[in-house]
Amino acid sequence: MTQKQTPISEVGEFGLIERLKKKCNELRLSANVTSQIILGIDDDTAVTRPSPGMLQLTTSDLLIEGVHFDLTYTSMKHLGWKLMVVNLSDIAAMGGVPVHAIITVALPAKITVEMVDDLYDGILQAAQTYGCAIIGGDTNTSIGNTMVSATITGEVPDRFLKRRNGAKPGDLICVSGNLGLSHAGLKVLLREKKRFLESRQPDGFDSQLGEYTHAVTKHLAPKARFDVAMTAAQKEWVHAMIDISDGLTSDLRHICQQSNAGAIIYEEKIPFDPLVVQVAGEFNESALEYALFGGEEYELLFTVDPEHKNELSKHLPDISVVGEITEEKDTITLVQEDGSIKKLMSGGYDHFRQ
Length: 354
What we know:
This protein is of the alpha+beta class. The chain has helices at about 10-25, 30-35, 75-95, 115-130, 180-200, 215-220, 225-235, 250-260, 275-280, 285-295, 310-315; strands spanning about 35-40, 45-50, 55-65, 95-105, 135-140, 145-155, 170-175, 240-245, 260-265, 300-305, 320-325, 330-335, 340-345.
């Protein structure tokens, strides 16, 4: 049975806000998070009291329909989850823990009350998973596409703060998880969208996503790697850290630029999921390029004092050493499997370049 869809105009802006306020207030979070909230979604601003002895972290991301997501294959629940994770991942990369979030949405007429409910179900699922309270935001209409934004604050003890500028020549370059999987998932979703549009049978369309579930999930519902970040933050021998949002090459270049250093990456050491190789082959493309330049991974990229290499597997499972930091400033070199050497350009995603 098709769920009834209610135009937002039927409940109005303030009715929608009350509905969302009720959903957000149902979150069950730790006493540390809730005790910091003096005023939540009740006044002109939220009022919080930061924890003593901590540094506050603040990050914000805007997701725009047609630029960052496509509602043809992205559910509103997945969109809500991902909105949170792209911000939460930034908090993790600094060695911090999330505390509060402010959500802003701009909604065109095609979005119904039930769709907003689904969006917030995804937001609140992520908030509950990672322990982050929703304390405010804004709702507005849009004459164009859907836009959603989250601003998240976190905190970190001074001594655990990780930045991009701490890499040193000789440091090992490490990544969590496997690379290229999110881009592989996007390629499959775009192919299925094309099949859907060409089928002219929207009600009877049979998507072929089963064997690609792992890649599709990585793209639509990524995870913030606090499991790695919390341990890495407490190790003095982890010198610099960033999350992989724009691609390995682009984000490694951020570390190199901030640290006045360069890098060497070894192709044979890059961790590939077998599905990345399969999908790249189906499109007659390179799995290596998926790993080097594919964005939206939200894995962690960090550098480690080489004297502590043996401690990596002991303290940080699911980690691969893919290269090392060099003294050649802002130069990233790829050593290919055949031994040949290639200078890597920035690549990765750039909002203002084609």
